[in-house]
What does this fold into?
Amino acid sequence: MEAIISIRSISKTYATGFKALDQVDLDIRRGEIFALLGPNGAGKTTLISIVCGLVRANTGQVLVDGHDNVADYRAARAMIGLVPQELTTEAFESVWDTVSFSRRLFGKAPDPAHIEKVLKDLSLWDKRHSRVMTLSGGMKRRLLIAKALSHEPRILFLDEPTAGVDVALRAGMWDLVRSLRASGVTIILTTHYLEEAEEMADRIGVIDKGRIVLVEDKTALMRKLGRKQLILQLAQPLEEVPTALARYHLELANGGTELIYSYDDKGERGSLAELLQDLGRAQIVFRDLHTTQSSLEEIFVELIGTKR
Amino acid sequence: MNRHAVAAIYAFEMARWRRTVMQSIISPVLSTTLYFVVFGAAIGSHIPQVDGVSYGAFIVPGLIMLSVLTQSVSNASFGIYFPRFTGSIYELLSAPVSYVEVLLSYVGAAATKSIILGLIILATATLFVPLRIDHPVWMLIFLVLTAFTFSLLGFIIGIWADGFEKLQLVPLLIITPLAFLGGSFYSINMLPPLWRTISLFNPVVYLISGFRWSFYGQGDVSLEVSLLMTFGFLALFIAIVAWIFRTGYRLKA
Ligand SMILES: Nc1ncnc2c1ncn2[C@@H]1O[C@H](COP(=O)(O)OP(=O)(O)O)[C@@H](O)[C@H]1O
Ligand SMILES: [Mg+2]
It folds into this structure.
């Protein structure tokens, strides 16, 4: 698939001397939901800020649908809606005014019907006459999304969009994101919640210490790194794994009451069945069994070797 | 040209002004009225004519300039500082808006407000003193030039300031003294030679002088010098703004 954003050799060293981004290359595909995942301070916000024109890169180039985001900033920026990480809003203006303002700022003629739709989609319609400063944190977050959507962007950046948003609203937000993608909008989100990346994203990019560590289809990533384990609760504790079962590389746990079999997704069905037969032959009786699959969280820890 | 953006920012800034119209207009009008009462009527009646006009009438152009200067600076500096302070400036910086458009809309709005204010004060003045305006077109030209020039300065201060104290201190510590000592209440020809020379380094002298000339046909310096200096400051401030935008100073990391 063709890239709608292509980021080439972007580096950024802040005035403090801190190198926040180091030769970042990244392609975002048209129409996908891309999750940028990384620990605090990894450089996620810096990267988004460079694409959106808030921060200057020291080296490299960003193309937004073929438009250089510096030389041809008007065309590039007009396509992008940005929802920043911080709740930075006006204060005294009404919700309606501030969202209408955003639309015109991005060069679009006023369109009350569209503003109405956006406010309704984000459950802000009842609040349209309220002053921004009277809104709760969750409402401000949605207001920022409304502002970003006011000018009908083809690309939407969501920088940690669910921070401070309660669970019910979060679900609504993801519904909105999915319907945006269905209408062809490309979405790039950063999140602390790994389940969110897992649930939402088509592809996942992992960034750490200013470098992109990997970019992968979510399902491929899960398949590649997602270890599965079969855990058997034994009726009788075992001293050691019988040699007849050596080829399965089983582990004993919980004082010999649990047998753990680790396997991957590739052709494991047959071997699972064989294992169960071999257990029967070795006269090992189990009371119960269950399987586990490593989460993105564990994958993440494995990849960058840090606990979050 | 992103016309919609310019119109939106301009309208946004004017709306902000309308919400606080009491502070924006009533207080400068009130304080100017007090100046007229104190200096024009009470003390002025004991002061002989200056340059052939009554003292009350003499101070009108200076008082208008005083308000236009301080309001231009404070309006424009607040207009750009507040979104920096709340962080909502991210939207402006990420929008398909050129620096010229940012400048036109913010400075244009601030200048509009102080021009309106200047005209209101002028109207107020006619209630107190018999006024005559020899060169109304020049009067408007000086009013507009001054409003734009000092709105530019306010814009620069609003970008430079990193706290509300600086935002308020600069107009207080620099603009007000310059305006007071720039000949609002006297002709600098009344000063001893040394102070007269020092005063010539005060940019406000040229604005007030030119403005007063448009009323009464005479100023402290010639019309040409006034105009030249005013355009000089305009050019200087534009150069500073251009530098700010080129380097992203205080706007972009
Ligand atoms: N304006 C700035 N000046 C100096 N350092 C900064 C600035 N902004 C961010 N940083 C630093 O750059 C690093 C990356 O920050 P950021 O991009 O916000 O990370 P993330 O969004 O992944 O948490 C952090 O160490 C942060 O302290
Ligand atoms: Mg961040």
